[in-house]
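User: Some background: our group keeps a shared notebook of sequences we're curious about, and every so often someone picks one and asks for a predicted structure to add to the entry. Today it's my turn. The entry only has the sequence so far, pasted here. Could you supply the structure so I can complete it?
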Amino acid sequence: MGVGMRVAPAVVAALLAIGSAANGQAQEVSNFYNIVDPSGADPWVIRHDDGRYYLIQSMQGGIVLRRSPTITGLSAGEDRLIWRPEPGTAHSKELWAPEIHRLKGGWYVYVAADDGDNNHHRMYVLENRADDPFEGTFTFKGKITDPSDKWAIDGTVLRTGTGDAERLYFVWSGWEGDKNVDQRIYIAPMSDPATISGPRVELSRPTHDWEKAAGPPTINEGPEALIHNGRVFLVYSAAGSWSDHYCLGLLALKPGADPLNASAWTKSPEPVFASANGVVAPGHNSFTKSPDGKEDWIVFHAAKAPGSGWSRSIRAQEFHWGKDGLPVFGAPKAADRPIPLPSGEPKRLRLEAEKARLEGPAKGVADSQSSGRSKLVDLTGPEARATFEVSVAKAGTYVVAVRYRTEPGPAADRRARNSHRLLVADRPQTTLVYPDSGGGRWSVAYARLRLLEGSNQIGLAPGDGRAEVDCLDVVLDPE
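Assistant: Of course. Here's the predicted structure to add to the notebook entry:
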């Protein structure tokens, strides 16, 4: 290499990765283990014009917005508490399934809330006119409802047409009357992003056995719009969300038909996405594109283990389109084998935990379900350490993903806090908390670390509880 020759950062990163792999510490990979967030539900993810992905969640007593340049790094993305309701109101408690939409030059958040009594759940809307949703203020606009003003959750917006021909429709899950007999999918026209302008129209109610499973009550909920080549679809969740029967169904609108014409919608006779490959109760999803725009991805939650009910994790995988124009979701991908990263996401360095420099009682033991056929155990006590050598091409904030497993046990034990401290150059940077991984199954937890250009020592040190570690991934491009 001649004096003064410049080398692209990607080439430098690849050379550093090769050097790390040569000493047995790391391997460059283009895949990930399919847990995007180790604990969460009802994921709503969109990709904004700024190239970043936004995930909105109900937490911290309010609504938190998180963003990341990648789908698989959302759990470690920077976050902002965008709204917390005033106490003592009709919308102070049980904030469910928030969504954020970019409409008419503003940002609109739709969330179900009540006063602590589920019978009083209604949909509410927030507005922020800033271009950047991390700037400005989300203002509470009030309840969004049709004239019936019945129980309502899981509201979303369907957009059809463009420009002056654009039409907005509010779609949600609700009760026909005032008793929890079943949940149905309704649609109504909107005059603006905060206002329903007409009566509701029922599009679907539970009619198939798979929709009625785990009832009563029987469930159709979580409707999400999907538009492709001019075709309009609603993908919804069916069966009890508390059960192992939860799954996704499909409503397809006749091409060119009015969305308010209930007879123009056709329901799939079978679920389009259901439990398989050890993944239990997949449901309540959203849709997005890979960073390069070449792939369609579904982001969804699933139960952590059979019988775990509302203890769920968030996952993501690619889906395709059939020759008939319908979406083909296939089966959920198992979390025990890595799957390809979304197209356009940076590669990762994968470091096997048992090959780290181990100190104290920490040791590697054989495990057939681990990525390197071994795992790290007994990272406990003041002398315990696991230290990884990681080289990066430039200084910055990097996402790390740690594949872990909490010990199986009674529900009370699984609620215990488990964590490790993350160190860089033997200095604490953050604490990595491990939610219950699902009765002894593997999961993935995420964090952000500041790394220096060149070689870094990333350490795992004991925190609370006990957790086993399989491997540690470092996303090669800093955020």
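Suggested note for the entry: The mean pLDDT is 93. The chain has two domains: 9-30+347-475, 32-340.
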